[in-house]
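Inverse folding, one chain.
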């Protein structure tokens, strides 16, 4: 077993996490949307108080990197003034709400997520990794995205509340959805779900009132870079973008931005046009997952992203290059996975990071030679 450290909590703006390149400050924009002035302000804060690097996460959050003990307070104050951080740390901690990124003003997802945001203080204290998915568009989009309590569109067109890990859920309506979700979160705590940490690992029988046979509708096709009814969809290689590039893009286009959990960013109302640091087609680099690796992460003994970029055009299928067995960049299996261990890589097939390897002790050059020949 490798020696990665499980932190056991998720950082947020009020509880930043120390990484190898400084404090990491996570921002959860309401409804995963930033108006143009919020993007510009956030980028200004990232440059002024961090190292100017921004990550888009698998929970559709933004992470500002490289803050220090001294620069974190003014960074958070700037984000708070922009309406991107709740002034109440308790509400901020409870606001892990994913929403289908193609929501429209006034639709079910928008209505339910907005109500849930106004009722965060009705939720109990939950383990920090617990999150919610409001996925009430015509077909669910977020079934593979990390969440514990899910509002989804059912196969019959009605809405349902489903506990993660269960195949079916209870029927709800737009009016009752937030209430039912909050009640289920209280049941989770009262039934000692905190010991399991996540809903999918909590094996207690659901209460009768929350049990049901409503199954979610089949998911639609995945979102891709390019044109979309909401706007132009851009891929961010490794989920990373420089604050200056993002600010310049938004300043020149004057557009709001929506965040997705797939390392895609939507420029609202825009037709696709080239943009620095972002990809508009299904480029090989978007089929590769790689965490920050060394030196930005203290758990890593290997560099990851340069190697992943070298390998991207050589690989058929999905590649995951992970700095250690924790596998932050991808929770699910990939076709090929390279896991860093003691300064070299282990290679596994159809696996998650840290899985039993086919080859061990690979240098980056040996990994390129091996995978390039596959
Ligand atoms: S997977 Fe990568 S980012 Fe996550 S702890 Fe390991 S080295 Fe760090």
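Residues assigned per position:
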């Amino acid at each position: 077993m490798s020696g990665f450290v499980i932190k056991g909590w998720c950082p947020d703006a009020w509880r930043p996490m120390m990484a190898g390149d400084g404090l990491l400050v996570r921002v959860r924009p309401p409804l995963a949307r930033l108006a143009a002035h919020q993007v510009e302000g956030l980028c200004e804060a990232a440059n002024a108080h961090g190292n100017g690097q921004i990550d888009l996460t698998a929970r559709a959050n933004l992470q500002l990197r490289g803050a220090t003990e001294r620069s974190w307070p003014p960074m958070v104050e700037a984000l708070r003034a922009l309406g991107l951080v709740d002034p109440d740390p308790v509400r901020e901690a409870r606001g892990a709400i994913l929403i289908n990124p193609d929501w429209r003003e006034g639709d079910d997802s928008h209505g339910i997520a907005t109500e849930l945001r106004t009722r965060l203080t009705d939720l109990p204290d939950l383990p920090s990794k617990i999150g919610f998915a409001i996925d009430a568009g015509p077909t669910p989009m977020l079934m593979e995205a990390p969440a514990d309590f899910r509002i989804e569109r059912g196969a019959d067109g009605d809405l349902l509340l489903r506990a993660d890990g269960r195949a079916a859920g209870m029927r709800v309506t737009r009016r009752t959805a937030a209430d039912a979700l909050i009640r289920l979160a209280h049941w989770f705590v009262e039934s000692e779900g905190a010991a399991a940490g996540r809903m999918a690992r909590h094996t207690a029988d659901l209460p009768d009132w929350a049990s049901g046979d409503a199954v979610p509708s089949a998911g639609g096709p995945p979102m891709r870079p390019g044109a979309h009814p909401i706007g132009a969809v851009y891929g961010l290689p490794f989920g990373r973008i420089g604050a200056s590039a993002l600010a310049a893009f938004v300043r020149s286009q004057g557009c709001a931005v929506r965040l997705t959990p797939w390392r895609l960013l939507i420029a609202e109302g825009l037709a696709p046009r080239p943009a620095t640091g972002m990809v508009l087609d299904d480029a090989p680099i978007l089929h590769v997952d790689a965490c920050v690796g060394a030196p930005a992460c203290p758990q890593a003994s290997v560099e990851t992203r340069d190697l992943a970029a070298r390998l991207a055009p050589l690989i058929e299928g999905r590649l995951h290059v992970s700095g250690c067995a924790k596998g932050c960049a991808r929770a699910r299996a990939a076709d090929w996975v390279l896991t860093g261990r003691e300064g070299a890589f282990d290679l596994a097939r159809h696996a998650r990071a840290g899985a039993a390897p086919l080859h061990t002790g690979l240098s980056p050059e040996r990994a390129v030679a091996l995978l390039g020949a596959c």
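Helices lie at 36-49, 72-81, 89-94, 108-118, 177-190, 243-253, 305-311, 364-372. Residues 4, 291-293, 297, 299-300, 322-324, 326-328 surround iron/sulfur cluster (CB under 6 Å).
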